[in-house]
Specification:
Blueprint: E1 3-7, E2 22-27, E3 30-37, E4 40-45, H1 69-86, E5 91-97, E6 102-106, E7 110-117, E8 120-129, E9 139-147, H2 156-161, E10 165-171, E11 178-185, E12 188-192, H3 211-214, E13 217-225, E14 230-237
Parallel strand pairs: 1-2, 7-13, 9-10
Antiparallel strand pairs: 2-3, 3-4, 5-6, 5-9, 7-8, 10-11, 11-12, 13-14
């Protein structure tokens, strides 16, 4: 017996089945098997395997090409200098030209909070930045890259906030950089080998990052005051609280 597959949408009313017919209905809340036979008609939600259908699988296949050495070196230089400034995270947005199949970085304005207690400074393990609202002609937002002062693994915040696209985390920035790369789509996180993303995974940083990038860093210092446990705030644009 032939079993058709129907998609249930808000603007589509499914026709009634006639006796001897059956169909699968894919809906927002699952897949259903509907039957119509002499004396009854049923619609049952399927759990587990779907009868008479072949197995399928999730996959992620990148066809966008690789990030070249020049871009990678600039990214590493920016992250290294940012870390020396405040000891925390830094971020870049990855843009992709769909016709030329090339990448470029966009450095957003980004805010990092740094705390002081008894002469010791430490950075909060979170960074605030916005994706660009206006893009260069031909480009789309493809993902981002950001620095982790420690190991390059997604935090709970990353897992919650990462939008669809490629997400590069860099760790070990003061030594040999280490990477963790994921591609996120439709709520699924695919781990990607770094050699599939970078032209040269062992590429060293450039001597200096673009100066304009450093000007995008906004450091907010919060000075702890005991015993009232209150904070006084100040802002440093491109400052060096760790060296103060």
């Amino acid at each position: 017996m032939k079993t058709d597959i129907w998609l249930k949408t808000e603007d589509r009313e499914l026709p009634a089945l006639t006796e001897g017919e059956a169909r699968y209905v894919m809906s927002a809340n699952g897949t259903y098997l509907e039957r119509c036979a002499p004396g009854f008609a049923t619609s049952t939600r399927l759990v587990g395997d779907v009868p008479s259908l072949a197995e399928h699988y999730q996959y992620c296949r990148l066809t966008c090409g690789k990030i070249n050495r020049t871009m990678q070196a600039a990214m590493l230089a920016f992250f290294r200098h940012a870390h020396r400034m405040h000891g925390g995270e830094a971020a870049l947005v990855l843009l992709y030209h769909t016709a030329r199949r090339t990448f470029r970085w966009f450095c957003p304005e980004q805010t990092i909070e740094v705390y002081e207690n008894r002469g010791t400074w430490w950075a909060y393990d979170y960074i605030q930045f916005q994706y660009p609202f206006q893009l260069p002609e031909g480009y789309v937002i493809f993902g981002d890259a950001h620095l982790h002062p420690g190991l390059p693994y997604p935090s709970a915040i990353d897992t919650k906030d990462d939008q669809d696209g490629l997400h590069i985390i860099v760790g070990g920035i003061n030594g040999r950089p280490r990477y963790h790369v994921d591609f996120v789509m439709d709520g699924v996180r695919f781990n990607v080998r770094e050699n599939l993303v970078f032209e040269d995974p062992d590429c060293p940083p450039s001597p200096q990052p673009p100066q304009a990038w450093l000007g995008q860093i906004r450091v907010v210092t919060r000075q702890y005051s005991s015993p009232s446990q209150s904070y006084t705030n100040s802002e440093i644009i491109g400052g060096q609280p760790n060296d103060a």
